[in-house]
């Protein structure tokens, strides 16, 4: 509907201009010849202002809001960038001090690690030696016990053999055991 109204209005305006141009061809040009086109222009401009005022106002308001938000965003980004630049500049200015601090920290960490590692190694060696000594002592005691047991078993076996081989000893041993039991 709006497009039909626009085209109709343009057709009337152009027709009026063509009629005015045709009638002006027969006489001398004067300032009055501009009266119809001026009225035509005034009507057209008035109608356009009346119809386009609200959409144009909305468009310019919207654009102004977008530009304002864009400017605020750009200002915030600029502020952030300046702050980052300031931080980086201060870091760059303190770079030799930072490098020196990092090197000192590294050296102290290496010394601490070397001392701690050396002490841990010594402690581990001492523990290992102690465990080895205890294990050796335990195995030695176990072997001595086994030898004593074997020796005792051999002595008992030889004594039994000796007692069983001699009847006189057998009677004496039996009487001694019986007297000890009473």
TrEMBL record:
Keyword Transmembrane: yes
Keyword Transmembrane helix attributed: yes
Membrane topology classification: Single-pass membrane protein
Transmembrane segments: 34-52
InterPro entries: ATP_synth_b/b'su_bac/chlpt
Pfam families hit by this protein: ATP-synt_B
Subcellular location: Endomembrane system
Coiled-coil residues: 64-98
Major location (coarse): membrane
Family: Belongs to the ATPase B chain family.
Function: Component of the F(0) channel, it forms part of the peripheral stalk, linking F(1) to F(0). The b'-subunit is a diverged and duplicated form of b found in plants and photosynthetic bacteria.
Name this polypeptide is given: ATP synthase subunit b
């Amino acid at each position: 509907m709006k497009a039909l109204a626009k085209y109709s209005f343009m057709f009337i305006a152009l027709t009026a201009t063509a009629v005015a141009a045709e009638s002006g061809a027969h006489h001398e040009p004067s300032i009055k010849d501009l009266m119809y086109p001026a009225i035509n222009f005034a009507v057209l401009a008035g109608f356009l202002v009346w119809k386009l005022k609200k959409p144009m106002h909305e468009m310019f308001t919207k654009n102004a809001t977008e530009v304002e938000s864009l400017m605020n965003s750009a200002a915030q980004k600029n502020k952030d960038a300046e702050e980052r630049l300031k931080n980086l500049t201060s870091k760059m200015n303190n770079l030799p001090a930072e490098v020196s601090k990092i090197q000192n920290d590294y050296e102290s960490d290496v010394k601490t690690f070397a001392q701690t590692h050396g002490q841990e190694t010594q402690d581990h060696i001492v523990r290992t030696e102690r465990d080895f000594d205890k294990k050796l002592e335990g195995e030695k005691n176990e072997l001595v016990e086994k030898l004593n047991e074997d020796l005792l078993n051999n002595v008992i076996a030889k004594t039994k053999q000796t007692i069983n081989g001699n009847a006189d000893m057998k009677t004496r041993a039996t009487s001694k055991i019986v007297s000890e039991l009473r």
